Amino acid sequence: MAGQRAQWKGFIKFGEVSCGVALYTAASTSERITFNTINTATGNRVNRVFIDNDTEEPVPKESQTKGFEIENGQYIIIDPDEVAATIPESNKTLEVEAFIPCSDVDDVYFDKPYYLTPDKMGIDAFAALRDGMRKSKVAAIARTVLFRRMRTVLIRPHGKGLIATTLNYDYEVRSSKKAFEDMPKIKIQGEMLDLAKHIISTKKGDFDPASFDDRYEAALAELVKAKIEGKALPKRKTVEVSKPNDLLAALRESAGLGKSKETAPKRTAANANSGAGRQRAARGAASKTASSKAAPQRKAG
Predict the structure, then answer these.
(1) Which SS3 state, helix, strand or coil, does residue 253 take?
(2) pTM of the entire structure?
(3) Where is this region: Disordered (predicted)?
(4) Lowest CB count within 10 Å: 10, 239, 252, 292, which one?
């Protein structure tokens, strides 16, 4: 991937076949607007300083170490070298342990996605694995040391390559039984169920991630732009609260069988994309305005 640094390089092995591969981040938050903490009295950026909990004195980096709390306020000291010694040795190999149906893994276990690409010498072996999994409709479970931890990875065909998703361990996923333990057993039947199914059928569509705009990010861009230009801050729109109603009446109204307001225009792909377009335009305007009105340099934090 031109212009992007690989997060990890190594090999993928299935059976007695192996080839060189690289992992690239598939999702990033680097395009989000970020803020620095500023001293309101001086306008300078603020540094983060670690303070002793009891003496309230700053602690220099060379005096900082790791500790595990065994009782309230009592810690055992663990040297960073001791922590480093627990990191598993890595042979830089994603070894496929099994091929499983894609539907076997509950997506609650999904952690982070990465694009998995081959090196030039291993394209044939890589393509054989990709096409074999696609034809067999399976995914691969592999394990390796990634980012200082032994990780389980789910590998699936994705376009011309593969996508590798790190998986949460079982102990990291909270029990769904506990989450829903207060949920009473209710079975919806009759007209209520028919209306719910009707509403669902009228709202069917396709997933298009480009059609969903980040309204918070767009609002931040508008705020930054207004502050730079010295304009009044954008006003928050008043939320229209629905009047209380019983479920059946609300379902009938949603299905067009009761009194309702004038039907809103159908959400088309063009309308949906306009939201993302407005967000990009706002970010661009804020960036352009900031460049043309460069603020005086401040001391580095």
Answers:
(1) helix
(2) 0.67
(3) 252-301
(4) 239
